[in-house]
Amino acid sequence: MNRNFTSTAAKRLLCMLLAFSLAIPAGIAYRNGDDIAPEKEKTTLGNLLPNPSFEEGGNKPTGWDHKAMCGTGKYLWNSDCAQDGEKSVGMLNVVGGCSDSAYWYTQEMIPVDPRNHTYTASVWYKFGGEEDRCPSGYIRIVAYDKDEYHLATLNVPCTYEDNEWHYVQHDYDARNDSLPTLPLDAYYVKVSLCAIVEWNQNADAEIRFDSVFFGVKEHANAPPEAPDISGPASGKAGEEYTYTVVSIDPEGDNVYYQINWGDNSSDTIWYGPYASGETMAFTHTWENMGNYTISAVAKDIYNAQSEWGVLEVTMPIFYGFHLSLIERVIGWIIHAIIGAMHCQF
Residue 123 burial by CB count (10 A; 0-12/13-18/19+): exposed, middle or buried? Predict the structure, then answer.
């Protein structure tokens, strides 16, 4: 037998086998994590209170109301004094015995999300009268669950110093359990400005409130770390693979992820939010053979964005089980012919 002929036939057979493995797939389904919930709507930044300087209104300041007061006590809303603008609210001659507290309060429920935000409350206050005659002052946050049932009442005292305007502020941070904070399951709050007296105490004195604030705390915010991506470094085109992504936020804020798979199927969806340091799994299928760069970026709930994390992968072998037998046979034949035509011996 001609040894050259045998060698040439073997080479041709090798070329055909190689061509079989290079068949180009068509119509492979792409999965990019559509089963993951879209980005959650975040709490609006800034002051969440209506009419915080009490400038607008008719019979009462817009957005605010007060509890009924008995005896000689009175609710005040006028321009006798103000820390900002022209008006302020207050109470005069709160009497113990028939009513131990008087307060202005927000009429509407204010949505909150203490799992993902730090809140801060503040107010300017002013006493009129001697300390032993003045009521105790408080800014009060009342928390409710999603069904508007009471969860907690948090008081921040407005301490008497003199008869000038003074400022008090308090943060409600679920990550700091050393301070009174909002319950994690709180959905709403109401804010009250209170004057409280002891039983049978006559407080023939005045307390004023102005420029009240409740909202998401604005603070210096470090971005999360670049995401770490883990998963197979190589595989077969046409087969689905799972990759995990994790990032840690310095403040422990929840994070969102955006994934780029290095092919034409990537999108700009932000997935999350997820807990800082929680490992999340994403799946993807590459349609064609080749080398790809998976890249991922994280941002926290305050939109501070990380650097990109990357992972290089390669899909060297086609794995087209989704094609029908006839489609695969036709593809093999076509590519075998093309491969054989290009083999030079």
Answer: buried
Residues 6 or more apart whose Cβ sits within 8 Å of residue 275: 254, 255
Whole-number Å distance between alpha carbons of 12 and 33: 44
Domains (ranges, CATH) in the chain?
Answer: 19-42+222-342 (2.60.40.10), 64-216 (2.60.120.260)
Identify whether the C-beta of residue 143 lies closer than 8 Å to the C-beta of residue 184: no
Which tokens in the block code for residue 154? 């948090």
Whether the predicted pLDDT of 251 surpasses 90: no
Give the contacts of 116 (CB within 8 A, at least 6 positions apart).
40, 42, 43, 253, 254, 273, 301
Cα(189)–Cα(194) distance, integer angstroms: 15
Going 54 to 59 to 62 to 68, the CA torsion angle's sign is positive
The residue written with tokens 């799992």 in the block is 115
Helix, strand, coil percentages for the chain (3-state, nearest 5): 10, 40, 50
Residue ranges of E strands in the chain: 64-66, 74-78, 88-95, 101-106, 110-111, 119-128, 136-144, 150-158, 166-172, 188-196, 202-216, 228-230, 234-237, 240-246, 255-260, 271-274, 280-285, 290-300, 309-318
How high is the mean pLDDT of the chain? 80
- What's the CA gap between 261 and 305, in Å, rounded? 19
Q: What is the CA radius of gyration of the chain?
A: 34
| pTM of the predicted protein model | 0.56
d(CA 63, CA 186): 21
Q: What is the pLDDT of residues 174-201, one digit of tens each?
A: 666 666 788 989 999 999 999 988 766 6
Task: Single out the residue of 310, 102, 330, 126 nearest to residue 197, CA to CA.
Answer: 102
Give the Cα separation of 137 and 142 in Å (integer).
16
Give yes or no for a contact between 69 and 94, defined as CB atoms under 8 angstroms apart.
Answer: yes
Contacts of residue 52, defined as CB under 8 A and 6 or more positions apart, other chains included, come to 211, 212, 213
